[in-house]
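Q: How would the structure tokens look for this protein?
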Amino acid sequence: MKIKNIQATQILDSNANPTIQITVILENGIISIASVPSGTSTGKYEALELRDNDPNNFQGRSVLKAVENVNTKITQALVGQNVENQKGIDEIMINLDGTENKSNLGANAILSVSLSVARAAAKSQNLELFEYIYVVANSETTTRLPELRSGVSGQEQSLKDHHVFDREAQTESANAREAATNFKIPNPLSVLICGGKHGNWVTDIQEYSIIPNLEKFSNFNSKIQAIIKIYKTLETILEEKKYSTGVGFEGAFCPKELKSNEEALDLIMQAVEKADYKLNEDFTIGVDAAASEFYQNNNYVLKSENNKVVSATEWQQKIIAWANNYPISLLEDIFDQDAWQNWSDLTNAIGNRFIIVGDDLVTTNLKRIQKAIDEKAINSVLIKLNQIGTLTETLEAIKLCQNNNIKTIISHRSGETNDSFIADLAVGTNSDMVKFGAPNRGERIAKYNRLLEIENLLKK
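A: Here is the predicted structure in token form.
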């Protein structure tokens, strides 16, 4: 089915900053809508989010240039294209932009179209979005995708109509149908306390999360119930201590009364235990330092300790001490995004016991992920669609990780919309974990709800 029209408009994200929403219209009348998020704590190697920089329009944050790029250049290039040719469509936009970081058209413009095209293609195939993503991720035949639910005989005629029927397509169709019985819901990494840029710097650490033990919970529904119980228990603890219970960008608490980075860990431990769960046995803790945000002149400056300056070696010693003394299982963005040797040293020292996650270090970029693999700098990658700018490139990044035994964590951004695309992305790519934020705020709950919906679909 061919694309008839593409329409872009400016909407607001969860931080009241402008972003893009795309409507794709197909010749058969199918309509799909997608919107893209934006980050607050961003890596310098991310694809460029094009903004207008007009101080009189949303304080320079408007995205009207990117909207215009979609409504003119991108639409002209894609009208008449087969919507099921995801890779081809993404390549057209990449070539049309002509820059490595998508600074011409804007990664926000390109990604929004890429996602809406995928959603339209899924509808045209009568597939759930996660099913379609699975097929795209595992198919070499991009002109016509094998359906998950149809029999081979019906698929044969469909493929013949598009002149691409061959033995490989039959194999893909069979593999896709088999995989449909093996989809799983990734483990949630749920943020409870935030600091840094996301939480008014109440701590140096940007996020403190809890992670359910896979062996202790039978399904996603039971995990999210437990997470919500711990979240609400933490709120009660904060109230009893007369601490503020306001939330940051991702719905997590950011009490200004916190006295140290360690106090946040202590509060989460209390909440887990008071909610009748056991640390290490039922839940562990994840720490996202976003260390590039407080890295200065080859040192780390800790605002929570009266702007104490510590060397990379001292900072690593502190992190390892935390990991040994607290029920921590995951460490994200612990060092600056260019401190490759520090990353390799840490992973060599404790990577056999801890999940070492690269976010700003790799920015969902194939070249940087490959470098991290070569230098043994990490054992897990945070995947963010808007760091790279197309669905195709994101799927390639995920495949590179999975082929090298690197865990993949599909992540939100601080400025989100109610679009739940990343929930389907996580299921469709068989990713290990998801990071949607706290069980609070509508744009976060939309993703959790979609996983609950998919879990119910899979039961059927």
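The chain has a mean pLDDT of 91.

The first strand starts at residue 3 and ends at 12.

Upvote if useful.
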